[in-house]
Amino acid sequence: MIPVIVIFAPTACGKTALATNIFGRSSFSVLKQKCEVISADSQAVYRHLDIGTAKPTLEEQKELPHHLIDIAEPCEQFGLGEFLENADRLCEEIYSRGKIPLVLGGTGFYIRNFLLGSPVTPESDPQVREKLKERLQKEGNEALYKELELVDGEYASKINVNDGYRICRALEVYELSGKPLSSFKLPCELRKKYDFCTIILNREREELYRRIDERVERMFESGLSEEIEHLKAMGCTKDFPAMKAIGYSEFFLEGLTLEQIKAKIKHDSHRYAKKQQTFMSGIPFAQTVHADDNKKIMEIIESFVDKY
Q: Any alpha helices (H) in the chain, and if so which ranges?
């Protein structure tokens, strides 16, 4: 089995700084340079999205190697299937170099499926998929989302109305199988090919909200508005997969001032962090630790790494 450390945390919890302090090449930790990071962040994969995604800086990436960052264009769809395929390949490559893979991020959907494996759903049918894509273009996301609510309200409640890819996939599964996508359940046991050490970092909600607000302020000071203008000049529209992210989609709303956009990003980020904290309860066989409890975190990881 390949040993894998998994660290999941809500946005603005401080996971990148923690990983760098423990595993970075300048660290004073006994775990220095023991790991390479596989990013489990659904937006960090996109090139040109740096400020709004709080992507690890080039300096941080030099300190600690990161994978699955800057590998897709904003117009490209990168989803769970692509993440799992790449993460499995990288785990083997990193371990073959004598390092331990560290899956680090806040996209709980990615992490939970990486731990348990994906439900076995019907294979995609090109004709059905193309028909749904055409309908999405003609009728819009909201119309297909309402249709999804009728046939699979459980799954619809878990995704955003702007997530056209997942809306189409759920409708495709229903059309092919006659069953809602939510009825295809995740396995209950961890995948056998890996030995997991899973840690969930957490903070009190009010503290987390304060950190989010401070981060959003720093993003605007660092030039988030200019980054958006650059992306628009490149041809990015609100329909690009990368532009669905919090911190980007708000700039495509009409009639908002810059201060209103900033307030909306803070509000949306609070809601997302709350969802992440709720999602944490669905991650099995994990130890939850306060994000500042470095002693406890080190104890857990050292005990795991000592086996290898």
A: 15-23, 58-63, 80-96, 108-116, 126-139, 141-151, 153-156, 164-177, 205-221, 224-233, 258-280, 294-305
| Residues whose CB falls within 8 Å of the CB of residue 301, separated by 6 or more in sequence, listed in order | 5, 22, 31, 197, 199
Q: What is the pLDDT of residues 221-234, one digit of tens each?
A: 999 999 999 999 99
Q: CA torsion angle for 67, 70, 73, 76 (degrees, to 10)? A: 30
Cβ atoms within 10 Å of 258's Cβ, excluding its own = 11
Euclidean distance between CA atoms 258 and 220, whole angstroms: 10
Is pLDDT at 122 greater than 90 in this prediction? no
Q: Between the CA of residue 236 and those of 41, 93, 241, 298, what are the distances in Å?
A: 20, 34, 10, 42
Separation between Cα atoms, residue 99 and residue 96, nearest integer Å: 7
User: Dihedral angle at the C-alpha atoms of 213, 216, 220, 226, nearest 10 degrees?
Assistant: -160
Mean pLDDT of all residues in 229-244: 94
Specify the DSSP element, H or E, that contains 103.
strand 100-105
User: Cα 287 from chain centroid?
Assistant: 19
What average pLDDT does range 182-201 have in this prediction? 90
**What's the DSSP call for residue 256?**
-
